[in-house]
Design goal:
By secondary structure, the chain is of the alpha/beta class. It has three domains: about 160 residues, Beta-Lactamase; about 170 residues, Rossmann fold; about 100 residues, Orthogonal Bundle (Helicase, Ruva Protein, domain 3). About 35% of the residues lie in helices and about 20% in strands. The strands form six sheets. Strands 1, 2, 3, 4, 5, 6 and 7 form a seven-stranded mixed β-sheet that branches. It has a five-stranded parallel β-sheet with strand order 9-12-15-8-16. A two-stranded antiparallel sheet has the order 10-11. Strand 3 and strand 4 form a beta hairpin.
Length: about 475
Amino acid sequence: MTNMTPYATDDIGTANHGSHLAYPERHIIGRTKAIQESQPGDAMLTLSQTELQNRLNTSEEAALVINNNYQIIATNSVFQARFPSADPNRLCHQASHGYAEPCHLSGESCPLKMAQERQSPQRVLHVHHSVEGAEHVDIRLEPLWVEGLGAVYLETQQVVNQSGNSRYRLLGYSQIFTQTLELLQRAAPNDISVLITGESGTGKELAARYLHFNSLRKRQQFVVVECSGLTESLFESELFGHEKGAFTGANQAKPGLVEAADGGTLFLDEIGDVPLPLQVKLLRLIETGSYRRVGSVTERAANFRLISATHQNLEALVAQGLFRQDLYYRINSFPVQLPPLRERVEDIPLIAESYLSQWQHGAKTLSAAALRYLKSLDYPGNIRELKNRLARAAILCDGEVVTPEQLQPPAGIDGKGRELPELERTNGEQTSRTEPGWPETLLTLAEAEKLYLRYAVAHHRGDNRSLAKLLGVSERTLYRKLNDL
């Protein structure tokens, strides 16, 4: 049984209660004024103090009890181990986030505020800062009515994004990435069909593997079907398999990828490229859970979890008659849109440092100027482009510190064919000749805005939300202007 560390609380709120929660070592609550209501809400579970104590003590995850004013009333030992500086009377957002204000005033959704408004359990994904560093935490908050105490909230915290295979861990703590990860986290343990969309290089296969390795099918196979570049006949044979003699060259029977994925996950990468005639057979496979090998009349049962991905706009393909509408609805049960790298610039340092730290010929690091340079790019190739730049730089770097010069593609041309800003060496680092790098000739206002925006992105330490606030524009406007760079 998990030991619980009690907190004594000061007077808060408006009502005085002399009741105590008795714990193995000492009382958890002296005097508390946590109640705002005189009666429990219709959806609130009523517990005795002993039952609440048992719920807290038996939780294998970090758990705490808070009141209506965000004040921590009690924690278990798991929480205390992760947040040893969480002193008595501290507020929950101070302990786990380091925020001076509640989460909803700091750019995140607040489960306590939502629970107070709806009087129902809430679940959100947050980034906490524990002794282990920044962590994604799946928070479940349950409103309770405890005899003698009134309204309190039991919060459990499960650390997520710790994939069993570290190669497939998703990296990033930006708000837009965390929102995407929350969708993946919710979908993973279910067998629902997931459609992952996003620009090329955003990590769609990595997201699919995350779903698989966090599902009940994780001990079975994850089978990738590359839908691009295959002819109709070859695609059908690869997917469903074939019998001996089914066609010229079929000298023996061969199982297909559907059969290889039995009990596991079937990942259809670039599903928008599936030939239209084959979409009918794919639809039948999904609807009936059965298929036939090429050259066979025998029905075979299929057992897999379907995940699909595409960089194309399937709705537009449906409108053009190039993709079946009924198939689209079958694969799109749970859509997840991956953000482009230019919308999560604050994640670039983490991704880059993680990649370079695992370099096969010795770990590398980025100079401050190199990091600024990476954050100034717009990445049409997204994470794939970033990793390609880092791989080339690591090969060119004879020491341990990567410079901006080593990150430039050949001939000084970036991913869109534009000349890169001229660099000069200052104090051993590569920096722009001027900041923000104004040319000697006059620019149009539109060109000047783009130049300054690149400078602002490269030097701003926060996320896009805070940058938009500093620039005096909405976050949507900032995203639009970044897309136009």
